[in-house]
Recover the amino acids of this structure.
């Protein structure tokens, strides 16, 4: 009998400890969330920021059915971001140059990626995008030169460059590989337009 009482007491004690452990774990998780959410929310909001302004979004929406115009707009918006980046970096009054370089590179890359997504969409639809592709290939050469100029800039200190080095490398790699893809796409478009003409 005493043994039965002992084991019931032991089971209750163990159960109590387990429940206490779960409660403490739950509190720890809640505390972690309470600490992380205020820090993560602005970062999440920042990452979700649209690189295009409302006017640009309206222009793209209006050009949805016109591949030539839409792709030209993406080239223009990519170029605008590159020009702003160059102006900011050459302005002696600029503060937080490294952070601004990082953010502007991020915006350029986001718009340029959307340009590539649109090229893929029009190619899959077998649209004739030969004219805008020529402009895009010219822009690729321009973007490559400007990104390399930033990378090789003599007036950049090492600590500053580290803050955007990864993003700059990513932008260069993306433009380099895209330039090759765009040249191949011209041949692909030429081929399906010839087939279309024959049919």
């Amino acid at each position: 009998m005493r043994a039965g009482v002992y084991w019931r007491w032991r089971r209750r004690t163990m159960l109590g400890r387990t429940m206490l452990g779960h409660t403490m774990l739950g509190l720890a998780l809640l505390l972690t969330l309470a600490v992380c959410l205020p820090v993560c929310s602005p970062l999440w909001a920042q990452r979700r920021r649209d690189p295009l302004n409302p006017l640009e979004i309206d222009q793209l929406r209006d050009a949805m059915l016109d591949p030539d115009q839409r792709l030209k707009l993406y080239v223009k918006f990519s170029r605008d971001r590159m020009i702003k980046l160059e102006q900011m970096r050459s302005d002696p009054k600029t503060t937080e140059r490294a952070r601004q370089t990082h953010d502007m590179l991020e915006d350029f890359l986001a718009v340029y990626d959307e340009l590539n997504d649109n090229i893929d969409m029009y190619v899959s639809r077998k649209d004739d995008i030969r004219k805008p592709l020529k402009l895009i290939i010219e822009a690729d050469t321009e973007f490559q030169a400007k990104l390399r100029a930033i990378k090789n800039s003599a007036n950049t200190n090492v600590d500053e460059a580290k803050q955007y080095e990864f993003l700059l490398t990513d932008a260069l790699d993306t433009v380099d590989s895209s330039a090759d893809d765009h040249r191949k796409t011209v041949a692909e478009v030429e081929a399906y337009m010839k087939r279309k003409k024959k049919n």
